[in-house]
Design goal:
The chain is of the alpha/beta class. Helices cover about 50% and strands about 10% of the residues. Bound molecules: nicotinamide-adenine-dinucleotide.
């Protein structure tokens, strides 16, 4: 829980676009010093220039969050310039689709690297220094926000790598919440689970490293990409609204942050959990929109 953000420090990964940039804008408006982290240099420079114009201290670093070594260098630089960060937003992520047996090892490495290892590195490198700061000063407050996805809470087909990474982030972050409670009341944790929100996530391939061979996408991967573009671009909640929810959660020490709180959106989670505890087989993830599932099955079966 952080009540007053002024003159505190925020480390934000994936800060050059989408939720990261929207959170950076709010953090700047609240007078926080910013550490902007992203792998896309041109977009990061634009974000740095914009936010420096807001009159707050800004440190921008090109870092691949999947790299333990690069994240260690980042953590040292943050410590030297700002000391322990108060808000750490482990948010960088990439999307990837296709039937779960189709993806190459390189693709698993890339998506798990950014979406899961990025969060792991953020937690392992920043939480210990936050705890030290908390121990040194009983008034010190810090908060970690990790971005997962609704995909980590329901298992939509044709996007298995992404689901796997996000489910792991859900569990990692719930465990972080409990572990923090064991040792302190001064550092909290929240989990951001967006549904479909218009950002640049559907263009994740722009940051695909050269080492991840670009093969000809399979039919299922093409369909997944088209569905993602359709769903994300038609999302009715903006990245800015999601960022406002993130800050409200940090202020109020709320753990779960959903972009969409309608019974329709959250109902997918409860029906899945209900089926599990009733020992039923997994429910149809398209139960709320059966026409989408029917179209997907038809497209894939007709080859
Ligand atoms: N937009 C949605 O509908 C949606 C839904 C659920 C979850 N999410 C999650 O939200 C998070 C933010 O995504 P977004 O929607 O704002 O997309 P976005 O593409 O607009 O922003 C993601 C940012 O992460 C950066 N990034 C990618 N790989 C990186 C790496 N290896 N190291 C450092 N930075 C890297 C990108 O350059 C980009 O600036 C992601 O974790 C994503 O999975 C998004």
């Amino acid at each position: 829980m952080i009540e007053d953000f002024r003159d505190k420090t925020a480390v934000i990964t994936g800060a050059a676009s989408g939720f990261g940039l929207a959170c950076a804008r709010i953090a700047a408006a609240r007078g926080m010093s910013l550490v902007l982290v992203d792998v896309q240099e041109d977009a990061l420079e634009r974000a740095r220039a914009e936010l420096a114009g807001a009159g707050v201290a800004v440190m921008a670093r090109v870092v691949d969050v999947a790299s333990g070594g690069q994240m260690e260098v980042l953590a040292t630089a943050v410590q030297q310039r700002f000391g322990a960060p108060h808000l750490v937003f482990n948010n960088a992520g990439v999307g990837s689709g296709g039937l779960v047996w189709e993806n190459s090892v390189a693709e698993w490495d890339w998506v798990l690297g950014v979406n899961l290892w990025g969060v792991i590195h953020g937690v392992r490198l920043f939480v210990p220094v936050m705890l030290q700061a908390a121990q040194a000063d009983p008034a010190w407050r810090g908060h970690v926000v990790n971005t997962a996805s609704m995909a980590g809470l329901v298992a939509a087909p044709n996007m298995g790598i992404y689901n796997t990474a996000k489910a792991a982030v859900v569990n990692l972050t719930e465990t972080l919440y409990h572990d923090l409670k064991l040792v302190t009341d001064q550092v909290g944790a929240s989990l951001l689970c967006p549904y479909f929100v218009p950002t640049n996530i559907m263009d994740s391939a722009r940051n695909r490293p050269q080492a991840v061979a670009v093969q000809k996408p399979t039919r299922a991967q093409q369909i997944s990409q088209a569905m993602l573009e359709q769903a994300v671009s038609h999302g009715k909640v903006s990245a800015q609204e999601v960022a406002q929810k993130v800050f409200a959660a940090v202020e109020q020490d709320r753990f779960y942050v959903f972009s969409h709180e309608s019974p329709r959106a959250l109902g997918n989670i409860s029906s899945r959990m209900q089926a599990m505890v009733e020992l039923k087989n997994p429910i149809d993830p398209f139960a709320q929109a059966p026409e989408v599932g029917a179209r997907l099955r038809k497209q894939l079966r007709e080859g």
